[in-house]
Design brief:
This protein is α/β, with parallel strands linked by helices and about 375 residues long. The chain folds into 2 domains: about 15-245, Type I PLP-dependent aspartate aminotransferase-like (Major domain) (Aspartate Aminotransferase, domain 2, 3-Layer(aba) Sandwich), CATH 3.40.640; about 245-360, Aspartate Aminotransferase, domain 1 (Alpha-Beta Complex), CATH 3.90.1150.10. Helix content is about 35%, strand content about 15%. It has helices at about 15-30, 35-50, 60-70, 90-95, 115-120, 140-150, 205-210, 235-265, 290-300, 320, 330-335, 350-360; strands at about 55-60, 80, 100-105, 125-130, 155-160, 165, 170, 180, 195-200, 215-220, 220-225, 285-290, 340. A 7-stranded mixed sheet has the order 1-9-8-5-4-2-3, with helices on both faces. A two-stranded antiparallel ribbon has the order 6-7. Strands 10-11 form a two-stranded antiparallel sheet. A hairpin with a 2-residue loop joins strand 10 and strand 11 (about 220-225). It is globular and about 65 Å long. The two termini are about 35 Å apart. The mean pLDDT is about 95. The structure holds pyridoxal-5'-phosphate. The site of pyridoxal-5'-phosphate has 15 residues, from helix 3 and helix 4. Pyridoxal-5'-phosphate binds near residues 60, 62 and 182.
Length: about 375
């Protein structure tokens, strides 16, 4: 196996290297490693960057979703409506909170949850909606909030792929009751390991989240409720603080490269999902082809690495299919066609052009009926 010429992703340090190195040294020297001054400072800085009054740092994005639901008193006996097209962790987080995921199909153009399908999936047990800003593209929050208000449902936004994304000019994570972020290394803002955060408007909710992430302690060694251990390391907080000042520039770079793909793929024999909102954070660049697997092999033959996000709707995952049966015809169809092209700030414009050229050169095998 030779390494691909154009890798799907590169996580090697770039212009942030010195700042990251300095952050690591600062923590090593400080002698304080879990929940401390770096975490406090990161929470304030990330809240400001995200346009939210409060941010609470937790261990990872999955915990961010699960703890947000728990802080809103959602648990056993409750249903949470979510998208079948996402990382399975979105739905697993609902299970972690003790609630039941209910899948509502996606919009075929936007690929995010369809507000009409949400309304159709509501039962007497529905308590919340978990829309996913998939690929960095905001879900249709104005329509989703209208449905939620009509039915008195809580809303937790899965922002794990959507750092700094906006929907109609407003930051994602600030529409609903809470926004959950992941800083897994491959995300637009990545740590050197697992990390996550919840952004919220209400101070009361932030306080509850701070207790829940630390065993439910209401005072030192007094556990007022059964919380979890989902504390952020000082090391991850310091690294995230070092990288946060670059995030706006990296996001602009992603948007520029995505626009270059859109140009380059205009005549390609594939479907490029429309740019629904300029606030798209361009975490991934998915295209669609009815011959996805052949296209993937064709590109691999030219040294271009791609991935499918996601090859299977969550509603068909063995861990969820039996407990959350759902008919999501659009997600089923789309999952068979999705292919993500390389997209990250360090990628050159020439690499984008080369990938675009290769996709244009793909000759779909005609299928005779
Ligand atoms: C990454 C991701 C998660 C889970 O975040 P972790 O930090 O890996 O736990 C949840 N939802 C979406 C959409 C993600 O991309």
């Amino acid at each position: 196996m030779t390494a691909p010429r154009i890798a799907f992703l590169s996580l090697h340090p770039g212009e942030d290297r010195e700042a990251v190195d300095a952050a690591i040294q600062r923590v090593v020297t400080s002698g304080w490693f879990v929940l401390g001054p770096e975490v406090d400072a990161f929470e304030a800085e990330f809240a400001a960057a995200s346009g939210a009054p409060h941010a609470v740092a937790v261990g990872n994005g999955t915990d961010a979703i699960a703890l947000a639901l728990r802080a809103l008193d959602i648990g056993p006996g409750d249903e949470v409506i979510t998208s079948p097209l996402s990382a399975a962790f979105s739905a697993l987080a609902i299970l972690m909170a003790g609630a039941r995921p209910v899948f509502a199909d996606i919009d075929p153009e936007h690929l995010t949850i369809d507000p009409y399908a949400i309304e159709a999936a509501i039962t007497p047990w529905t308590r919340a909606v978990l829309p996913v800003h998939l690929y960095g593209q905001p879900a249709d929050m104005p329509a989703i909030m209208a449905v939620a208000r009509r039915h008195r449902l809580a809303v937790v936004e899965d922002c794990c792929q959507a750092h700094l994304a906006t929907c109609a000019g407003r930051p994602v994570g600030t529409f609903g009751d809470a926004g959950a972020f992941s800083f897994y290394p491959t995300k637009n803002l990545g740590a050197l390991g697992d990390a996550g955060a919840v952004v919220v408007r209400e101070a009361r909710l932030a306080g509850r989240l701070r207790r829940l992430r630390n065993g439910g302690q209401t005072a030192r060694a007094v556990h007022g409720e059964a919380g979890v251990n989902s504390r952020m390391d000082e090391l991850q907080a310091a690294v995230l603080r070092a990288r946060l000042p670059y995030l706006a520039r990296w996001t602009a770079r992603r948007r520029g490269l995505a626009a270059r793909y859109r140009e380059g793929l205009l005549t390609a024999p594939v479907t490029v999902p429309p740019l629904v909102d300029p606030g798209h954070a361009c975490h991934l660049f998915p295209i669609r082809s009815p011959q996805r697997d052949a296209l993937r092999t064709f590109l691999a033959g030219q040294g271009i690495e791609t991935l499918a996000h996601y090859p299977m709707p969550i509603s068909r995952q063995p861990a969820l299919a039996a407990s959350s049966p759902a008919v999501c015809a659009v997600a089923d169809r789309v999952c068979a066609e999705l292919l993500s092209l390389p997209l990250y700030p360090a990628l050159s414009g020439e690499a984008i052009d080369e990938v675009s050229r290769a996709v244009r050169a793909f000759a779909p095998v005609s299928v005779h009926e």
